RNA sequence: GGACGCGUAGCUCAGCUGGAUAGAGCAACUGCCUUCUAAGCAGUAGGUCAGAGGUUCGAAUCCUCUCGCGUUCACCA
């Protein structure tokens, strides 16, 4: 159409440039028709005419397209297109004939993508803060899978480093305790949590008193392994209860003992990205507190970081960042595609160096998108819940699952953009009202199901033929909204923003509830009309399409649909 | 002091990557259960999108500066 228009008007413009800026999408306001385009604004520059006049020129090009009912110029020069009623009726038919496939989009094209999330230290059970990253990462993973990526869900176990020494010491204390020794108070700096009693018990079960007779250095590895086994079992169980199943658990210790650090180093060396040097004190810091040390450094500033980063400590051992680089090289090698990290708000300062690392190690072939999940404030009826890590008195993920259930946690934590902090109020999230979106969406689905029960027909027994009976404004609006589902999913996936799925479902539910209530004031608007089988059938098909879409959305969020409430 | 994020209705938040009159829920006020589930619906009221500039046909959205809030800042992990 563009080239036709070009020659007709004898003008020149860059079609690619235009197509990039061109929009053809359903407008916010449904009164503006079904599709809307800004093409006349874009062309007005070349034609040296007002957008409105351009639009009027364009009208007769557009109304020749099939399925177009009416074309109007509006506002500053938008061209609004109204599609014929039958377009929408066939739309519902297509949906029901291809229940599984009608919304398939192939954004990922089978490309691999690796998403690392949770990666909580294996020193204790998961707590509330972990829950958000866990749910977010998991929903994002299944969303990406849904749109055609090959997704690997990965957990990095930080089973090396000083926190493991602390863990071993804490475990040995509990071991003594299990052997009947009075351990009194847990010393400062060790992990006080009760869960370590299980580790002590396991050590006694496996080794009896035998560990007592040996040097600490000799038993370190044994205790370390038993502690990790017990705690990772707790963590996996917490994740299982949240409905999360990771594909890969990677051990930091294995990364260190393998050859990856050397590989990393040689890649950086070849690219001239490492040097021995001394870092300057950060701006604003008192230079008296600054100790100058010569270290092996990575030139992350070449990739936009504010300062270069240490790979080795001054005593020559690797930094955490160095092993993390090696780990990311490992992920790049395995994935040969882009990476995603889901981290907590306290890792904000880490983003730019890991970006630099991935770009350097992948030769700029791949990139990493770091999603930061902001803080979760736990509240009980508006008042903050006090937690103290010191006393081991903090709310665990397991506690939350016990009190509100998995579906509520998942939905609430996803009904917010990841970079916004989130209030999680135990009282509010179990409330059953519109204030609580979980029940709102579930209720819509339960109502769908209830209609089929009243009609004494099963979803799969509906006849999918004639939908010309669906013609009220509200029905068509609902069909239109359902047809937007693949687009919503695509946008959510492209932007790595699973919260959009939640908001879509809430809006869909709202439209459905509204349609339902119409039948209260006006009996002819009910879904089931006693003596009109055809009308009833087509309306039930619409209900089915709603139910299908809600289920698809909930499936991505790993939330079970409810059939009765 | 630097980095990153946030600032939208009294409160909690969306806003489709630059579109038309900025939207939901809660709280307030009006209505709707003999009816396919009222855990719901319809309506009223509530806004200088923190502030000031800039980019253009057009800005809550992009850029710059200012203010406020949050997270963070060397060999920890």
Summarize the structure in words.
The structure is a single chain. The chain is α/β, with parallel strands linked by helices. It is built from 21 helices and 15 strands. It has helices at residues 2-9, 15-21, 39-47, 51-62, 85-97, 128-146, 162-178, 196-207, 216-241, 252-257, 260-270, 320-335, 351-361, 397-404, 406-414, 426-429, 437-455, 473-483, 485-494, 499-521, 533-556; strands at residues 24-25, 35-37, 68-74, 78-83, 112-116, 150-157, 248-251, 274-278, 294-298, 309-310, 338-344, 368-373, 376-380, 383-384, 422-425. The chain has a 5-stranded parallel beta sheet with strand order 7-6-5-11-12, sandwiched between helices. Strands 1-2-4-3 form a 4-stranded antiparallel beta sheet. Strand 11, helix 13 and strand 12 (368-373) form a beta-alpha-beta unit. The protein is globular. The mean pLDDT is 90. The protein binds one RNA strand of 77 nucleotides through helix 3, strand 10, helix 17, helix 19 and helix 20.
Rough shape? globular
Question: Structural class from helices and strands?
Answer: alpha/beta
Widest β-sheet, arrangement of strands: 7-6-5-11-12
Average pLDDT confidence is 90
The span between the termini is: 53 Å
What kind of assembly state do the chains in view correspond to? single chain
Sequence stretches where pLDDT stays below 50 over 5 or more residues: none
Radius of gyration: 30 Å
How much of the residues is beta strand, in percent? 5-15%
Largest sheet: 5 strands, parallel
Q: What level of helicity do the residues show?
A: 40-55%
What's the tally of helices?
21
Q: What's the total count of β strands?
A: 15
